[in-house]
Amino acid sequence: MTISSGTLNNASTDRIEKQILLKAPRSRVWRAVSNAEEFGKWFCVDFNGKQFVAGQSVQGNITYPGYEHLVMDVLVERVEPEHHLSFRWHPAAVDVSVDYSPEPTTLVVFELSEVDSGTLLRVVESGFDQIPAARRAEAFRMNNGGWEEQLVNIEKHVAKG
């Protein structure tokens, strides 16, 4: 498994970019990314049968140990079958006593490309420079590590079939 990381330039604080080559057909990877219930299995969130539909919000209870008290809330922006899924959310919104709704969101984009040995999955999260300064660096740090873990999770998930 190889996870590549990068930014447009090494000094960028606005975006996280990760990619992984998955040894699975694009249709399989797309199902893991675009089907809310299946997405939840590897991302550790229970969307309870909800669907990812452009223009609609989806909420689900987080199932990751230690974070079960949190609800993940995303606004789906764009869905292009087997190629692109994007949503907006509040990064690192882990304090239940804080109302994050007035804050700007970041944009998470999943892009799939078919390659000879499987599917290249690219994940880009951007918009961190708009997050309030008091929590910007921590949100970036948490999500940077989080995306590395999530790419390992999806790799294991699609390998199961």
Automatic annotation (TrEMBL):
It comes from the Bacteria. Residues 23-158 form the Activator of Hsp90 ATPase homologue 1/2-like C-terminal domain. SUPFAM superfamilies: Bet v1-like (SSF55961). Signal peptide: none annotated. Belongs to the AHA1 family. This is Activator of Hsp90 ATPase homologue 1/2-like C-terminal domain-containing protein.
